[in-house]
Amino acid sequence: MGSMPNWFAKTKEMAAFDRYFSTRDVDEKELLDRYQRALARMQGDDFYSSADALQTEWRGLADRSLRMRMSLDEHFRGDWIHHQYPDDPAKYGSQGGRFWPQVPSQDVIDRLRAGVVFAIHKAMGDTELVNLGLAQEYRDRLWKAERENGIDVDDGIRGIALSWNCVAPAGDDYFEVDALRGPTVVEFAIATPRPYGHSSVMGIADDLRTGRISFAPPGGGQSLEDGQSR
């Protein structure tokens, strides 16, 4: 997170999101397919455990698995949500991650899921939402801002541009999402407090404390946790 605590940030993961949900390397039909696959993933409780955008962005790289693990399993799990939330959502859903311990992990998950779905719906356009069978009442509420601003809600598929905005002081419990369709792109914004500072190895420390990882060498032998040489 080298760009933090800047109030307006774009991380490598966000850039990958922008490229994946665009016509940079696919046509509109293929982009629509990506949106439909993403919507299906959003229905699962562990939608944050994998990312097609990152898989696509880092394909062919020798360290892709390491990058994925560090991004999803050591950054999102731990920084954004409590590091034990994936293991026991009921127990840890009311606790926050290292960035915003005052914001419950379940709130982060629920709002991110909703924000991604809203952004994708707005990127697909209203005709596609009709094809999905979405209710008129939902669509009326979804497009309220666009119709008030004279934005066409059904003139083709849009890409999505994701931004992260640190709009509240550290310690505040503010956490919101928004999505707006414009003439050329859907803007998807995540608005949070400024994160608390933390070290780059806190994720490892948390995993050691909870037993998720160990200093014990592979295949047995003397554990380094005992402070003894092998």
Would you write up a description of this structure?
43% of the residues lie in helices and 12% in strands. Strands 1-2-4-3 form a four-stranded mixed sheet. Helix 2 packs antiparallel against helix 6. By secondary structure, the protein is of the alpha+beta class. The chain starts with 7 loop residues before the first strand and ends in a 20-residue tail after the last helix. The longest helix is centred in the middle third of the chain and has 20 residues.
Strand-helix topology:
Blueprint: E1 8-9, H1 12-20, H2 28-42, H3 52-57, H4 64-80, H5 89-92, H6 105-124, H7 126-131, H8 136-142, H9 144-148, E2 159-168, E3 176-181, E4 185-193, H10 202-210
Parallel strand pairs: 2-4
Antiparallel strand pairs: 1-2, 3-4
Helix pairs in contact: 2-6
